[in-house]
Amino acid sequence: MSVTRFAAPPPIEDLGAWLEAFTQPTVAIELAALGLSAAVAWGLVRALATALGRDQRSVWFGRKDIDGVLFPAILLCLVFAARAVLDRHLNVVVLQVAMPVLLALVVIRTGVKVLQLAFSQARWVRAFEQTISWLVWLALVLWVSGLLPLVLYELDQIGWKVGAARLSVRNIIEGLLTASAVLIVTLWISAAIESRLLREATGGELSVRKAISNATRITLLFLGLILALSAIGIDLTALSVLGGALGVGIGFGLQKLAANYISGFLILTERSLRIGDNVRVDDFEGIITQINARYTVVRAITGREAIVPNEMLLISRVENLSLADTKVVQTARIQVVYETDIDQAMQVLQAAAQAQPRVLHQPPASVQLSQFTTDGIELTVVYWVADIENGQGNLRSDVNVAILRALREHGIAIAATVRGAPPSPSPTALPL
């Protein structure tokens, strides 16, 4: 019984015999097996997408049934099984070529999809995707033509000694490939954590999981760097002196940068500030949208964003407006003439403010007589709001408009606040 192996096609010197094999009648059987495998793979992917729920940003499924990594991966397994069966009875040619093509497609899809998921807004992703595709297809052509072992041998001959170790171009390429593979896996895991574990989390829970995600990414990147250096052939013990010098450089030359990174982890672990909190930092007020390792993004209601170094959040005064209570108080001041019925005016103002949908009923809106001025009586309307993220200026405007309309409907005059000012458009107060 023959043993099925994932072997390369015949070398380039047997290309004539190889092309002649494609004219054999058994090629139709291989094409039928390939088509059947593709149909089965498409059906399995479609069934899994329906059962698990399709996510267009998923690396496995993508936007369509054949757009993700799962379809070429399942097809590769089915083609491998079909080749193992047919190889016992036929001289397999088509499936032998299809397997490396599908393997290259799996590699390209994995790299491209992970980069799109991890760096969806970066402009360099498109160029990097094309680079990955060209390199993988070039390696495929060399492997199919039988030139890959010869190219690797020649690259291995180009080398030099670094201390007791010998480096070659082949070792460096293998190390870069190892580092790239580990980087892809790291980004995939990080993206999976952020998209699935952080999807339903909010507030403090989101901050803790964000810290775990960042720690996981840094740990995996460090392990990937170690594996890449080992694959190249560099003795890691020789890096102890370099590591010490690097630590001294970070301690003296990069104090601010290190302080920002440490501050970021402290903020995430202590949960003193959380994603979604409404804060005021250095006269800039907004909602925290991101807490990264080095900086925090605060977005104002007007749409402006401030990038605040994490160290500033620890050493300076920060007002957290939503830490203990989400309710915020607002006031509106109105001056009415002395001839006004104060009890009626206070009832009218309270009803106008309380009628707004966003104004809380507990505690209810209230009206206070603030002071007596030379122009009139100053009344202060106090009301509470809980959805501060929906804006404060729009609610203040709605309350003021409602107050002005209510005063005009009840014939309550607004006092002039400036001597010689034009007369108020409000109607004259009714005589008492």
How is this structure best described in words?
The structure is a single chain. Helices cover 54% and strands 13% of the residues. It is an alpha+beta fold. Among the domains are: 12-157, no CATH class; 268-320, SH3 type barrels (Roll); 328-409, Alpha-Beta Plaits, CATH 3.30.70.100. A five-stranded antiparallel sheet has the order 6-5-4-3-7. Strands 8-10-9 form a three-stranded antiparallel sheet, covered by helices on one side. Strands 1-2 form a two-stranded antiparallel sheet. β4 and β5 (295-299) form a beta hairpin. The longest helix has 30 residues, at 203-232. It is elongated and about 110 Å long. The relative contact order is 0.06.
Give the count of helical stretches. Answer: 13
The amount of beta strand, in percent, is: 5-15%
Cα-based radius of gyration, to the nearest Å? 35 Å
Q: What's the β-strand tally?
A: 10
Low-confidence stretches: 1-8, 418-432
Produce a short descriptive summary.
The chain is of the alpha+beta class.
SSE diagram, text form:
Elements: H1 15-21, H2 26-52, H3 70-86, H4 94-118, H5 124-145, H6 148-157, E1 159-162, E2 165-168, H7 169-197, H8 203-232, H9 240-253, H10 255-270, E3 278-281, E4 284-291, E5 295-299, E6 305-309, H11 310-315, E7 318-320, E8 328-336, H12 342-354, E9 366-372, E10 377-385, H13 393-409
Antiparallel strand pairs: 1-2, 3-4, 3-7, 4-5, 5-6, 8-10, 9-10
Helix pairs in contact: 2-3, 3-4, 4-5, 4-7, 7-8, 9-10, 12-13
